Fold:
Amino acid sequence: MSAAGGNLYADLAADPAAERFEQLVARQGVTIERIVSMGQGSPDGFWYDDPRDEWVALLAGAAALQFDGDAHERRLAPGDYVHIPAHCRHRVAWTDAHAPTVWLAVYLPPATGESAARESGRA
Amino acid sequence: MSAAGGNLYADLAADPAAERFEQLVARQGVTIERIVSMGQGSPDGFWYDDPRDEWVALLAGAAALQFDGDAHERRLAPGDYVHIPAHCRHRVAWTDAHAPTVWLAVYLPPATGESAARESGRA
Structure:
């Protein structure tokens, strides 16, 4: 049995025209993705509203997230991670325009009815 | 709704006497864990044989994994990740003895369809 792999910092040729989304794992309802940004942010007025919890870490570069209802954006430095609950509306306020920003995102399986209600809230 | 977070490189006070396992997420059958090693490896003859797929990245330091049946160990540098299938027997051959090695491990839900309640610790 073999174990496939790679390097999170390989091939960082960033594209100022578009973020790069690369799926590293998609199994058992879990998606692990590397995202390479170069100055991109979410469009004005756009909010992510995902039915899945997302755990995301910033591994290189710099960025800021904005959460709906928060007065201030949340700036992220390398190593910073955030657990974004399902349906927690957020957007990428900005990413560093001068160097690649590397994100590692883990999307959890969507909660289903009863079991979701039993989950302890993270508030 | 708020989003909890932290930093993967915070509080790296490594303990030469024991690896540190910190659960960052345990939801929907998925466990995300930070592990800080300082010279530890698996005991001789010990093999992890987990019913869950494990995706693991080495974020800092240096280490090597050994897979059952492979002639050579697999050395990992920062950014290297490996997707270890369920029941793929492996062990940690060594970790850097002189600086903290930081791992990020994502355990996927078991493939059996059985509840994630079966889930237990690493090993």
The beta strands of chain A are 4-7, 20-27, 30-37, 54-60, 63-67, 74-76, 80-84, 90-95, 101-107. The CA atoms of residues 47 and 91 of chain A lie 5 Å apart.
